[in-house]
Amino acid sequence: MHLSTLISGLSAIGGLTVAHAAVTNPVIEADDFNVTAALGDLGVDVSSIPALEPYTGLEARSTDLACAAACASLSFVFGSKVSGQGADGYDNFTSSFWSVQQEEVEPRCVFRPTKNTDVSTAVLLARLTGCKFAARSGGHAAFTGASSAPGGISIWFKDMNAVTLNADKTVASIGPGNNWLSTYSALEPYGLAVVGGRASSIGVGGFVLGGGISYHSNLYGWSCDNVESFEVVTASGLIVTASATSFSDLYWALRGGGNNFGLVTKYNLYTIPAPHMYGGARTFLQTAFPDVINAWVNVINNATVDGNAQQYVAFLQTQGMSLASAELTYLKNDSNPEIYKQYRSIPAISDTSSSKSLVEYVRYLETENPYHLREVYWPISVNLDEKFANWVVNLWFSMIPQMANVTGGQPVLIYQGITEPMLNNMNNYGGNPLGLAGSAGPVHLLHVAFWWNNSSDDNTVYAFVNSFLEKVLAEAKVVGVYNEYIYMNYAGMFQDAIAGYGAANKAQLKNIAKKYDPREIYQVLQPGYFKLEGSPVTPNF
């Protein structure tokens, strides 16, 4: 087949032939979208790319052939921005993930765009060839393929790392290649911050798109509820700015809907004053657990009184001791605020609390997120109930001995509260799709974090966590505290995070995806992480 005929056929796979600059008027992908013409609008002459010359026919093609053509085409267009296996850029990508499961993924190539139109071109070339892709901001998801594409194109946003302010410094524009350390460090000289992550290496992208619990959330809400606008590359390669007044349905969907609607190339977040904080971890023995849980519940319920407090409690066994470690953060340099006095009346065996800037705090908390281990996070939610919270902790410590033979294993149960101020802020700027805004009261977000050494223990760990949480959910239904919400940023690979948003919100998200991506490019060619239907992986344990 002649190349021009092939390209004409391939081009029928695609959106709307318009200039691929940022646009502000609603655009719906036309049935006769032409991928080749869209690439031409970006200055890419498909007929000049040698890698596509032998690419014959529209018949079924192997992943290897499709992605060989896609990666060679990217390399032809972008040169050194593309790295193949064995190259330094490739190895730097695969070795720098948080979890070993992600490090084990071998993409066909790694592409490091430097501007939004680079991303448009990559999406369209993937679409033209049928090569699967993934995109990485920080790479802090735990499971295989979440932000790296096995055998496909892994788009690494590392070089799209600008942080700028608008004229009146009310909005910070943050590139997806930033983590929260680089973001806060750029804003600190101006005395500013944004509602972002709590550990330094967490990427901006996945965090915001999954919701985003922050130190500041009792004052301002979650990160997704503090986005002024998103710059996003749609499936047709078109670059749009989605806000409360422009592409407002897409804006709503991106505030918790994950990677299902496009690749975000700029996060425009409202700025807030940078705090000088006080906080750290107070650690308690098992005899104090009921008092610790009572204090934890009371801080949640008093969030309407003092929104400067942010807390979580981790329950774990180490060195033969059962412990509760309460991370108590305060957004003022106050070592003994009234809201934490109950905690401070409970005898602790250690306390790391000190005065810290926001930059110092995220660096400190990074030590709780060890790299290069096998990892799983797995959350559920229940309505806040102190008696039930105590029951869950007792169940947890009764089951931990089952993991004694897991090499390097460290299971941790973590309690957080979704408070009334957080829930109220979910109505800001048209709301979000999380399904929590109408909650009758605070929500108890609990999740298991577990790290271990050997892949031979994977299914043992997964089965243990699943068994524990199934028992918790069953009891929650019996006592009437069940809540279907699943926090995407902690969700495990066997969970259907979007289903936890409720049937109506899930249906609306699917409608919005169909509007902006009628050929399901971001569902089929970008299959990793949490899609609109089902879990990323089917359990086999």
TrEMBL record:
PROSITE patterns: FAD_PCMH (PS51387)
Residue span, FAD-binding PCMH-type domain: 103-274
Signal peptide, first to last residue: 1-21
InterPro entries: FAD-bd_PCMH (IPR016166), FAD-bd_PCMH-like_sf (IPR036318), FAD-bd_PCMH_sub2 (IPR016169), FAD-linked_Oxidoreductase (IPR050416), Oxid_FAD_bind_N (IPR006094)
Tree of life domain: Eukaryota
Gene3D superfamilies hit by this protein: 3.30.465.10
Pfam families from the UniProt entry: FAD_binding_4
Coiled-coil residues: none
Alphabetical UniProt keywords: FAD, Flavoprotein, Oxidoreductase, Signal
Glycoprotein keyword on record: no
Gene Ontology MF: a single term: oxidoreductase activity
UniProt keyword Oxidoreductase, yes or no: yes
Family according to the record: Belongs to the oxygen-dependent FAD-linked oxidoreductase family.
Protein name as annotated: FAD-binding PCMH-type domain-containing protein
